[in-house]
Amino acid sequence: MKKPLPLLPTSTVGSLPKPSWLAEPEKLWSPWKMEGDELTQGKQDALRVSLLDQQVSGIDIVSDGEQTRQHFVTTFIEHLSGVDFEKRETVTIRKRYEASVPTVVGAVAREKPVFVEDARFLRRQTTGPVKWALPGPMTMIDTLHDTHYKSREKLAWEFAGILNEEARELEEAGVDIIQFDEPTFNVFFDDVNDWGIAALERAIEGLKCETAVHICYGYGIKANTDWKKTLGSEWRQYEETFPKLQASNIDLVSLECHNSHVPIELIELVRGKKVMVGAIDVASDTIETPEEVADTLRKALQFVDADKLYPCTNCGMAPLSRTVARSKLHALAAGARIVRNELAAA
Ligand SMILES: [Zn+2]
Fold first, then answer.
1. How many angstroms is it from 254 CA to the middle of ligand 1?
2. pLDDT tens, 44-97?
3. Residue 200 is inside which H or E element, if any?
4. Which residues surround ligand 1, an ion (CB under 5 A)?
5. DSSP state, 11?
6. 2 pLDDT band (50/70/90 cuts)?
7. Gap between the Cα atoms of 281 and 300, Å rounded
8. Where is the Cobalamin-independent methionine synthase MetE C-terminal/archaeal domain (predicted)?
9. Quick one: DSSP state of residue 1?
10. Where are the alpha helices (DSSP H) in 5-81?
């Protein structure tokens, strides 16, 4: 029997810091410190701790904290055939920074489930609502070099089919919300509107659970903070893609808000959708006060109905320290509580 959701249910975008005994902290792509069975158990223990941190903080929709993956895109791709991780090329990710990435050398396929066992494990630990994040098709192709399909669109459709297989099994495992991370939706506007949203809808085809898309300005790493400085005083990127997302079958839209230059009225463009409003900055170690969180939520309430407002973080918290991340989770829940009480009293 699952608990019903309160008004303004809180959640995180997905990733949380890993314990230092599992992987080097405050680092992306941090290598595991264990191997074999020990690593499997280490990941499960970390997942349990991460879940407990969320529960103790008062987070309503919990996740695995992405404790079993090294990176939100790479780990999924590692499990697919058709991609050669030895054959690496340097590409420019999101028109922003160079990275050495693996190469698509043949037809891509999911030979076995990727995260389904992990999701079952999480499901056994809690009766509360559970959200699971997967990379979106467009973000996957942006993190690869392709010598086989030679078409971004074609490869995205292949990945959409693969993601759909995985999503159906995650739903079967008891996941309540499946979220696709599509930071590239803030960069390649023509592609998003031509085929990106269509590919995303292919990925959620036939699902009965709720579905979400997360679109952000990235982790608080230098390449992203430098890029943000070039975007000017008003970040209107969401304006390019929200109208089409509003008309799509996606149930929830997760967006960056607090400390960003996103004009809050852009939320109006997805009116009717549930909106995961980022009220926690993941690019700063400064802990938001509950009142600051409440303030962001009150502003958002002008453009989203209260029953559709889901307080959230701006992005994943993997690169933060565990102490900072925990304090931010507490602030998020406390801020949501303030506004919940205000709404109840109104
Ligand atoms: Zn993000």
1. 9
2. 999 999 999 999 999 999 999 999 999 999 999 999 999 999 999 999 988 888
3. helix 197-203
4. 216, 315
5. B
6. low
7. 16
8. 8-333
9. -
10. 36-57, 74-78
Nearest partner of 114 among 76, 85, 82, 81, judged by Cα: 76
1 confidence band (pLDDT: 50, 70, 90): very low
Domain 36-345: give its CATH code: 3.20.20.210
* Closest among 82, 144, 69, 147 to 111, alpha carbons compared: 82
Domain-wise residue ranges, the chain: 36-345
Distance from Cα 139 to the centre of ligand 1, integer Å:
11
Is the CB of residue 44 less than 8 Å from the CB of residue 343?
A: no
Structure-token pair, residue 65: 């904290």
CA distance 72 to 15: 8
Dump pLDDT digits (tens) for 110-134: 999 999 999 999 999 999 999 999 9
CA of 345 to the centre of ligand 1 (A): 34
CA 15 to ligand 1 centroid distance, Å:
9
CA 76 to ligand 1 center in whole angstroms: 16
Residue 37 CA to ligand 1 centre (angstroms): 31
CA distance 99 to 34: 25
219 token code pair: 């982790």
Please answer whether residues 83 and 102 qualify as being in contact, where contact means their C-beta atoms are separated by less than 8 angstroms: yes
The residue with tokens 């990941």 is 43
Residue 211: strand pairing partners: 178
pLDDT score of 260 more than 60? yes
Handedness of CA 173, 179, 181, 185 (dihedral sign): positive
Beta-bridge mates of residue 309: 275
Whole-angstrom distance, CA of residue 21 vs CA of residue 42: 8
* Residue pLDDT, tens place only, 12-56: 999 999 999 999 988 888 999 999 999 999 999 999 999 999 999
What spacing in Å lies between the alpha carbon of 313 and ligand 1's midpoint? 9
Instruction: Fill in the amino acid letter for 319.
Output: P
Backbone phi and psi for residue 194, each to the nearest 5 degrees, phi listed first: -75, -50
